[in-house]
Amino acid sequence: MSFEIFTGVHSKKEDIINEFDNYLNSKNNNFFFVYPFSDKNDELLNHLVSELNFKIIDINEQLNNILTIKGNLIHSFNNIIDNLLNESQNSNDKYLIKFNNPILFEPDILEATKKLGEIIWLYNPIFVNESINETFFNYSDYIFILSDDLEESKERIVSEIERII
Q: Is residue 13 part of a domain?
């Protein structure tokens, strides 16, 4: 496909062209940011929202609204996913979804999340939890390494997200 893009010579195989077009058209405008909670990460994401005109959804708020003490986590999460799918499919908006509740850092939930958009792990080298780091590494589409300098991280993350949208 790269050859076709750069040379202008197109494949005569319709199925290859259609598959490539379907891939380009299936790109989702949702970005799930997985990270351990911190004020620094929240400030970074709020900056990204303001710079790139994203709508922000905090999964914790949604989860707290529907999860009862006897509630089923997977069922509750699936309800949230269904609501997000309906909302995002009926809109051209880009969504930034904050995903920072440790009870959601389960492989089944992260796998279901991939259906909705790109998972971006905000990796903080200071945060050491091998189990969570391994899970995030395995399920993330992108990894953004945070620096100690918040302003530098703000500039870099805007640049990186602009590149992938």
A: no
Residue 11 belongs to some domain of the structure: no
Whether residue 42 has pLDDT greater than 60? yes
Spatial neighbors of 8 by CB under 8 A, at least 6 apart, are none
d(CA 48, CA 122): 13
From the list 112, 113, 120, 149, the residue with the least C-alpha distance to 52 is 120
Task: Yes or no: say if 33 and 120 are a contact pair by the CB < 8 Å rule.
Answer: yes
pTM of the model: 0.72
Domain count, the chain: 1
The proportion of the chain whose per-residue pLDDT surpasses 70, expressed as a percent, equals 71
Helix axes 73-89, 59-66, angle to 10 degrees: 120
CB contact at 8 A, 34 and 136: yes
Q: 97: domain CATH number?
A: 3.40.50.300
Residue in this structure with the two tokens 């990204």, named with its chain if needed: 48
